[in-house]
C-alpha cells in the first residue's frame, strides 16, 4: 500500500478537493482506495445533523457504485488511531491510502505526514503557496517526498504561473487542476467520471460548455493521478532548474 498525505497549513487550499479528486483518479485505475479523514471533522456523527464533508462525499460515491471494499473512509482523531488504522488498511489489501489533514497540525496530522510515501501540498493562489512554503520548513523540515500542486487558480493561467513560482525551490507537479465545478461539487456529485458522463451531450446542446469543462477537469485529474503515481516511484516530471534546489540531486537522477 502507498500512502499519500495532503498538507497545507492554511485553510481553503483545496486539501479536501484534492483528496477526493485523487480518490476518483485512482478508483478509475481499478485501485482499492482508503481515504483517511484526519481533519477536525473526523469523528463527526454521520447520522447527526451535519455529517462531515467526506462522510457526505462517501454517500455520493456509494450512489456512483464506489463502496467498501473498493473505497472506504477511515476517521482518525489520535496518533494511535492513525497508526493502527493505516496498518489495518494495509493488511486489508488497499492499494492506496489518501490522508486529508487540517490546517492546524497536531500529533495525529504529524503522524499521518510521517507515514506518507508522498506528501502533496496544494495551493489555490500564490498566497496559499507562500504560507505552505513557510509551513513546510516549520512542520516538515526538508522533506524528500513532497510535491506541491497548483490547484484550480480562480484567476487563470497568470495566477497559476505565479502560484507555481511562489512554491520556490520545492518541486511542483506539472499537472495542474483547473478551477472547476466537477471538482468543487464533488460532495454533491460524487465520482468525477460519473459526473462527467452524466453531463455528456452533443456540441449543439445548451449543456455542452458544462460538459466540456467537467471533462477537461476529469482529464486533468487523471493526468495528476499518473504523475502522483510516478512521484511515488521517485520519478519527477520537474524540469531541471539548477543547483539552488535541495532537490537538484533527485532531478539529475531522473534526467
Ligand atoms: N480546483 C478547484 N475548483 C473549484 N473550486 C475549488 C477548487 N479547489 C478548491 N476549491 C474551492 O475552495 C474551497 C476550499 O477547498 P477545500 O478542499 O475544502 O480546502 P481545504 O480542505 O484545504 O480547507 C472548496 O469548497 C471549493 O469551493
Ligand atoms: Mg478540508
TrEMBL record:
CDD domains: ParAB_family
Domain of life: Bacteria
Record-linked InterPro entries: AAA_dom, P-loop_NTPase
Domain AAA: 1-44
Gene3D superfamilies: P-loop containing nucleotide triphosphate hydrolases
SUPFAM superfamilies associated with the record: P-loop containing nucleoside triphosphate hydrolases
Pfam families for this protein: AAA_31 (PF13614)
Protein name per the record: ParA family protein
